[in-house]
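Ops channel
N.P.: pipeline sanity check, posting one input/output pair.
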């Protein structure tokens, strides 16, 4: 299971500098500049697909917060996206291919 780096209370104008070089293109504007964020940064590579289990664990670790949650990863499963949508998280992803948890696990085991 993928484990994110979690940064709480990050000032929005610092978001881009906290991202790995390959993910910096995901933040272009200043729409989050005046916002306090909780950032969950998952390993950022094409072989790293974030599943719902990783999101549940991350949400449990972060707990309740008044800060805007921003989650960064290469790709997320459908179930992971549904969980993130339910907590109104901002998702920054290279792509959303549309894997289900079940399909991703079956491919990984093959």
């Amino acid at each position: 299971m993928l484990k994110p780096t979690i940064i709480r209370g990050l000032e929005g104008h610092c978001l881009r500098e906290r991202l790995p070089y390959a993910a910096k293109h995901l933040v272009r504007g200043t729409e989050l500049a005046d916002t306090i964020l909780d950032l969950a940064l998952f390993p950022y590579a094409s072989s790293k697909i974030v599943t719902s289990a990783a999101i549940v664990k991350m949400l449990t670790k972060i707990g309740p917060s008044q800060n805007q949650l921003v989650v960064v990863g290469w790709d997320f499963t459908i179930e992971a996206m549904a969980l993130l949508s339910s907590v109104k998280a901002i998702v920054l992803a290279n792509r959303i291919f549309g894997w289900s948890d079940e399909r991703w696990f079956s491919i990984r085991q093959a």
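N.P.: looks fine end to end. Residues 77 and 100 are 5 Å apart (CA to CA).
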